[in-house]
Amino acid sequence: MKSTKNFASDNNAGVHPLIMKAIADANQGYTLAYGDDSYTEAAISKFRKCFGENIAVFFVFNGTAANVLGLKTVVESFQAVICSAMAHIHTDECGAPEQFIGCKLTTLPTSDGKLQISQLQQSLEVVGNQHHNQPRVISITQSTEAGTVYTPAEIRVLADFAHQNGMLLHMDGARIANAAASLNLSLKAITADVGVDLLSFGGTKNGILFGEAVLFFDRKLAQNFKYIRKQSMQLMSKMRFVAAQFTTLLTDDLWLINAQNANRMAQKLAEELAEIPQIKITQKVEANAVFAVIPAQYIPSLQAQYFFYVWNEASSEVRLMTAFDTTAADIMDFIKLIKETIK
């Protein structure tokens, strides 16, 4: 099968060579299992240097587990998680929050993936009413499913609202590296420093092979996570292999270098698409996603050579994702095909 790059997802990219080397380097001799090893200790130390010494860090296999198990640790079944109707936990996790937490997801419409305080006010109307799920967590995605980025000020407003009303703020950070790169800020500046309580830290979309991290910024919130992780079949025995990846990702700003490239390539793709009259960019390009309307009759031909997803069939809006290894040549080859197809 011919291997070609595409613009469907940064999940489709391979593994960064330095990450693959880290896995191979960790494959030496015997060490303790289940995270009681020096590799896991080193990775947690890296996270604490990035986010603060008082955090609790845990590793799981994938992003759905990071989101769901993190939330399960702080949410009771009679409570609710408030999120955007675009949120990954609502649209792309096959009902996992409802299945494993038993709670309700309260979704709010967003045009750009970003929740607004004016929307959240109505969630307080049910507080104390035994007939309704009680709001416990506000969950945001950074960068959002629409490719937009929350500013620190926007996050702080949401965190303050949550805390003032007995709630917590969860961040699905599957693409947090892209958000930090877009804002030219540290990871801590858009999480711990602005009131985030719980973070799902993504690595798979930024060059690692497998594994995500769950970070609690108040260790007391993490008290039961290790038991929930085990019960949910997410405790890996050979944890050194995921830990070694994160140590490398967080060394010498590899996480940032990877994200910066993906973001630059998205900007370049958007700039080139904007020059094609038949195509309309529909969202701000702030991270590594480009949303655009392409005339429906041309999409199958383009997908045959460069696969990507149609985001909205009715409007013919597509989502184009760039990755840590996307090159300018990849962009220009794709643009050439579009121009040859749309005449």
Q: Your description of this structure?
A:
The two termini are 30 Å apart. The chain has 13 helices and eleven strands. Helix 1 runs antiparallel to helix 10 and helix 11 packs parallel to helix 13. Strands 1-7-6-5-4-2-3 form a seven-stranded mixed sheet, with helices on both faces. It is globular, with a radius of gyration of 20 Å. It folds into two domains: 233 residues, Type I PLP-dependent aspartate aminotransferase-like (Major domain) (Aspartate Aminotransferase, domain 2); 88 residues, Alpha-Beta Complex (Aspartate Aminotransferase, domain 1), CATH 3.90.1150. By secondary structure, the protein is α/β, with parallel strands linked by helices. The longest helix is centred in the last third of the chain and has 21 residues. The model has no long low-confidence stretch (mean pLDDT 96).
What number is the mean pLDDT? 96
CATH fold title of the largest domain: Aspartate Aminotransferase, domain 2
**What strand order characterises the main sheet?**
1-7-6-5-4-2-3
Looking at the overall shape, the CATH architecture of the largest domain is 3-Layer(aba) Sandwich
The proportion of strand residues reads 15-25%
The top level CATH class name of the largest domain: Alpha Beta
Helix fraction bin: 25-40%
Order of helices and strands: HHEHEHHEHEHEHEEHHHEEHEEH
Number of DSSP-assigned strands: 11
Largest sheet, strands/sense/barrel = 7 strands, mixed
Number of domains: 2
The end-to-end span amounts to 30 Å
- CA-based shape: globular
Radius of gyration: 20 Å
CATH H-level homologous superfamily name of the largest domain: Type I PLP-dependent aspartate aminotransferase-like (Major domain)
H/I helix tally: 13
Helix/strand structural class: alpha/beta
Outline the low-pLDDT stretches.
none
